[in-house]
Amino acid sequence: MTAVTGLPPTMADRKDEVTPMLGQYVECCEQHSDALVLFQVGDFYEAFCEAAAEVARVCEVTLTQREDSTGEYPMAGIPIDNAASYLEALVEADYRVALADQVEDAEAASGLVDRAVTRVITPGTVVEDALLAAGSTTYVASVVERTTADRVRDGYGIAAVDASTGACFVTTVLTRGDVREELDRIQPNELLVADDAPTVAPDGEWMESAVDAELFDPTIARDRLTEYVADPDRRLDNDAEQRACGAVLAYAEYTQGDDGPLEYVSRIRRHDQRDQLRLDAAALRGLELFDNRGPGSGETVFDVLDETASALGRRCLDRWLRRPLVDRAAIEDRLDAVEALVGDSVVRSDLSDLLAEAYDLERLAGRVSRERANARDLRALQATLSIVPDLKERIADIPALSDYHDRLDELRDVATLIDEAISPEPPMELTEGGVIKQSFDDELTDLRTTEQQGREWVADLEAAERRRTGIDSLSVGHNQVHGYYIEVTNPNLDQVPDDYTRRQTLKNAERFYTPELKEREDEIFGAAERADSLEYDLFCEVRETVAAETDRIQALATVIAELDALCSLATAAAENDYVRPNVQAASDDGRIAIHGGRHPVVETTQAEFVPNDTDLTGGDVAIITGPNMSGKSTYMRQVALICLLAQTGSFVPAEAATLPILDRIFTRVGASDDIAGGQSTFMREMSELTEILHDATDRSLVLLDEVGRGTSTADGLAIAQATTEFIHDELDATTLFATHYHGLTNLADEREGVHNLHFAATRDGDDVTFLHRVAPGASSASYGIEVARMAGVPTPVVDRARDVVATTTGDASDGTVVDDATGSAAAPTASDDDTATDPPASATADDAVCDALDEQTLDAEAVAAVATELQDLDIATMTPLEALNTLDELRSQLDET
Ligand SMILES: Nc1ncnc2c1ncn2[C@@H]1O[C@H](COP(=O)(O)OP(=O)(O)OP(=O)(O)O)[C@@H](O)[C@H]1O
C-alpha cells in the first residue's frame, strides 16, 4: 500500500488544531490506516493533504485548497453521483478506498453531520454494479498452511468469497503446485496475507493485501464461522480451511462496513480437487480456455461456447469449464440435457429469449441482503421472477430437464409482494416518495389522498380567486422557499381582498397567501412528508421480507444459471456441428477414439479445417513429428479439448468420439517459444515437467509440445527421450508428444504402445503445402532448414546448411518434405512406416557457392566468409532457435553485400 493511506502526514501534524469536521476525517483515517479515505462533504467525496494530491493524480481531478478558520489544506474531490469511474481508477492503482459517508440527514442534524466509514472498496470485494463487469466473478482468497501436531507441513487450506454474490468455498490441497492450480482456477482479484508472516501463496496477478494476523487466529476464525454454519468442524475439513475461510469472511465483513455476518453468504461449499478434472495453470493457458495470448483471432474456447443470455449463465459456464466433472452420471445428466436442447431449436431460442430478461439474481440477492437494494433492484428481481413460470412451461415436456423444472421455484410469495408493494417505475432515491404503490397500505392511501386533494384544491384556486377578486392576471404558484402563493401584479394591488397576507415582494408584483391556502399547504406538505417517510419504512419492511428468502433466491439463481449454460452449450453444439461424445466408465481401457476431430477455436478461423482422427488406448504415447506450422500443436490440443468438453457435459467438435474419464490434463509447451525468457524459461519448463512426472496417473492425458527445446540439441533430446520412457513405463499416462527430435521416433520400435504419427506436406517445386492431416509413421528430420528456406534464407546458404547437416549427421537428406499426400483421413494406427523420402545429397558447398555467384551475383568474399562460418558451427550444441538466429545473421551478412 502506498504511503497516502490512513492519516496524511501533514494532517497528522495539525490534527489537534483542525475544525470539528476535519476532526471526523482524522478519526476515520486513523481507524482505516490501510485505506485511502474519501470523506463526504455534501455532493462530493473529498481527500485532504497528501491523500488529496494522490487522488488528484490518479483520478485526474484538480487539486484545490480548503480554507477554514484554522488555515489552508490541499483538497481534491470527486462527485458522488459520478464516483464509479474514479473509484475504479483508485482500485486499479491498488488502493483500498474507505468511503466515509454522511450517516445522518444534513438538514435534520442539529450540529455537525455524523459521518462513518460505510464501505471499504478493494479489488477483491467490490460489490458496486458500476465497478463490476457483468458475468464476472470477483474473489478475495486466502491460503493457510496446514501443519500436523508435530509441526510438519501437511498441505494448504484455501478459501475464497465473492462479496457481490455471496459465493464462498473452501478446499484443501497438498502441494504448492496444487495451490497454484487452485488459485489459477479461482483467479482471485485479491489475496489476503497475514501481516506478521511471509505469504505461502505463489505470486500471481492478484493484489496482495496484508491484514491483521488475528483474522487467521484459529479460535477467532472458528468463532466467526459459527455465524455462518452450524458446525464448522463438520462442514470444514480442518483447521487450515477454517482459518482461511474465517479470514476471508472477516475481511469481506470489514469491507461491507462491519455490520456483522454477511447474511447472503448462506452456504460455504467445500470441494475436493479430486472430484473434478484437474487443470493446472499451464493447461488453462496452453489450451487457451479463457485467455488467448497467441497471434490470430484472440478467440478462446470459452468465447466459442459462450452463447449465454444472462450474466448468471455466463458465470456458470465459466465455472463448468474451469472445473469439468469426473462423475460419469453427472456428465451424462448434462449431456442428456444438452442433447434435448440441441434437438429442439424452437425451445432453445424461446429459452434464450426468456433468459435474456433475467437480471443478475446472485448480485441482486446480495444487495437485498446487505440492505443496499433500492426499489429498482426489487423490481428487477420481480421481473426476473416473472419469467420463471414461462421457463417452467417451456421445459415441462422435456424429460431430460425434469430436475431443472422441479427446482425452478417461482417464488410467488416474493413476486406478489414486490408487485403489490413497489411502484412499477420507482426512482433510485428511497426517501423521496414514489417507491411504494399507494394501494399497498391504508395509511399511505389516506396520506396520498389528502395530499392529492390538497393539490387539486390549489389547482382550482387560481380560477376561484380570479372570479372572487376580478383580477384576470392573478396566478397561483409554488416555490421551494416560500411555498404556495397568490401572485398579483402591481397595477391590480388595489383589488386585493383583506384576507390576503403579503408573503413576498417582487419588482412588478406582490405574492400573498390566505388562511385557507396556508392551511391546505400545511396539509399537503405534512401528508407528503409523512407519506414519504412511511414509504421508506414500508420499503425497508418489504426488503427485509425479501431478504429472508435469500436462500431460495440463490437456489433459483443457480437453476437459471445452469439452464442458461446448458442452452449455451446446446446452441454452440448446433451451430458448430458438434456431436454427443460417448463417455466411458472409469474402469474402461482409457481409449480415446475420435473420428473427424476438430479444434473448436482454430476451426472457426480457418476457411477449411482438416478434421483428424485419433485412436489411442489408455497409456499409449504418440510421438508426433512434422514441419513447423503443419498442425501438430493444433492436433494435440484438439484431442485434449474434446476430452475436456465432454467432461464439461458439452458436445464435442468431431464426427464421433468415445472417450475416457480423465483425472487430469497436463500441457507443457517447450521453452523456446519465449525467446526473452531464455534460461529461466527452460528452468520453468523443467520444473513444470517435474510436476507431471510426479503427479500424472494412468487416467491422465499429457500433452508435451516440443519439451526440451530450450537447451542444446543433445541435452534436449536426452531429456525428451527419458521423459517419454518414464511416462510410458512408470506412469502409464496417455501422452501426445510433438517434437522436432527425430531421434525420439525410434522409441516406437522399442516399446509397445509408443506410436509415431506425423503431419504430411506436399512439395511442388519450391512450394510446400501443409496438408494438416495426421498420418501414421514418423516424418523427415530436416524441418529447420526447410523453414529457413521458406523464411527467405538465400538458396546458397540453405543448400550449404543441408550439406553441413549431411556431413555432421551422416544423413544425405536434402530436407525435402515429401509425404504421402494422398493419405486418407483414416485413423492413424500403430504402424511406424516412415513415408518421408531421403533424396541423394546434391551439390557440394563449393558448387553451391559458385551457383550463387552465377545466379545472384553475390560478393564472392562474403559468400566464402559465410560458408566458413557455417563450417565452424557446432551444430550439436545449438538449439534449433540458435540455429535459426544464426541463419538469419548469415543471411543479413549476404544481404549487406
Ligand atoms: N487441421 C487443420 N486444418 C486447417 N488448418 C490447420 C489445421 N491445423 C493447423 N492448421 C493451421 O496451421 C497453423 C499452424 O498449426 P500448428 O501451430 O498446430 O502447427 P505446429 O506443427 O504445431 O507448428 P510448430 O511446430 O511451429 O509449433 C494453425 O495456426 C492453423 O492456422
UniProtKB/TrEMBL annotation:
Q: Where is this region: Disordered?
A: 810-844
**Superkingdom of this entry's organism?**
Archaea
Which molecular function GO terms apply here?
Answer: ATP binding; ATP-dependent DNA damage sensor activity; damaged DNA binding; mismatched DNA binding
Q: Where is the signal peptide?
A: none
Query: Where is the DNA mismatch repair proteins mutS family domain positioned along the sequence?
Result: 700-716
The record's section on CDD domains has: ABC_MutS1
UniProt keywords (A-Z) are: ATP-binding, DNA damage, DNA repair, DNA-binding, Nucleotide-binding
Q: Where is the composition biased (Low complexity)?
A: 819-830
In which residues is ATP bound?
626-633
Which InterPro entries does this chain map to?
DNA_mismatch_repair_MutS, DNA_mismatch_repair_MutS-lik_N, DNA_mismatch_repair_MutS/MSH, DNA_mismatch_repair_MutS_C, DNA_mismatch_repair_MutS_clamp, DNA_mismatch_repair_MutS_core, DNA_mismatch_repair_MutS_N, DNA_mismatch_repair_MutS_sf
Q: Which PANTHER family match?
A: DNA MISMATCH REPAIR PROTEIN MSH1, MITOCHONDRIAL (PTHR11361:SF34), DNA MISMATCH REPAIR PROTEIN MUTS FAMILY MEMBER (PTHR11361)
Membership in a protein family: Belongs to the DNA mismatch repair MutS family.
Identify this protein by name.
DNA mismatch repair protein MutS
